[in-house]
Structure formats: structure tokens, C-alpha cells
Amino acid sequence: MKKIFGLFFLFFAILLSGSCTSLQVIQEPNLGRIVVRTQSICFSLFAPFYTPWCFECKPNSILLKGIMENSSGTRTLFLEYYLKTFETELPVGVSLKLDNQYFILKKTETSYGENLKIVSELAPELIPKIESAGTVLLSYSSRSETLNIEFSSGERKNFLNFLKGLNEKISSLDKMNIQKL
Fold this sequence. Notes:
Layout: H1 2-18, E1 23-27, E2 33-38, E3 41-42, E4 61-69, E5 75-82, E6 91-98, E7 101-104, E8 106-112, E9 116-122, H2 127-132, E10 136-142, E11 146-150, H3 153-172
Antiparallel strand pairs: 1-2, 2-4, 3-4, 4-5, 5-9, 6-7, 6-10, 8-9, 10-11
């Protein structure tokens, strides 16, 4: 019995460790676009501590997404923010404070489900400002409140690494050649 349990545990550990990656490339079924997603960054309620079990769609987390439209070749970067509670007030949007200047991100999607997801576009001219910023603060606003989350040094480092990797990956993608038979 102990051998079976040990083998099951070993198999499960290998399965979990082999499925981790920092970038995920998803080719859409209609061949109209390619989506690249990063790992999530989860914000801790207790700022200096590590947040265990950070996964996509976890409340109070963000992830970056890049989309390449196959027809035009345009590449766009997005920031997805997942709220930790269901908001009763309508969300206004998300902004980033880089050093001492706020940048309002263009809201492109709001999804209500198990969690509230707000997707905002990262303008191309904003990317160099994010990379050179000393401090990064995420600000979420609804009609009733504003929530400010300052990135810790580790979160900022992960955010910059994910942004750089995503930008490189989405820039290196070639348009898919679709042949009719």
C-alpha cells in the first residue's frame, strides 16, 4: 500500500512540475490570431510575504497577454486584472502609476463570472516607461472606491521580466501562412 501511495505521489509531483511555464502560446482555432499569455502575478494582502498557489484567474492577480492578429500582423499587449471580490458597482478602469505619474489604461473588456476580470490595453508608448520606472502601482477604480496596490520589488521584477519576455515573443511571431487545398 505504501509503494502504491509513494508511486502515486511521485507521478503527481512530476506531473505538476512538468506543466509550469512562464509563457503560453495559444493558436486560436479560427487562425485569426495568436495569443501569448504570461504567468499570473498575485498580490499578497500582507505586502512583504510570498503568496502561495498563484494561478491564472486568482482574485487579486494580474497577468499580461499579447495578441497578434494574423490578417493585419498587428500586435497588441494587454493587462488582465482579476478582482478578489465581486463588485456591485460598475468598474471604471485600471491605471498604472509609474514613479509619480498616472497612466490610464484603455479598458477593452470586462467579464463577470466567478471573478471580475478587467482587460486593459497597454499602449506601445507606455512599454518603455514601464521598463524604466522605479516604482509601479496598480490602481483600480469603481464608482464607489479606488484600490491602490504597490508592486513589491519581487512583483515589479516579475512584471518587468514577463513584459520583456512577452514583448519579445509577440514580436518574433510570424504571420501564419494559410493555404487552401
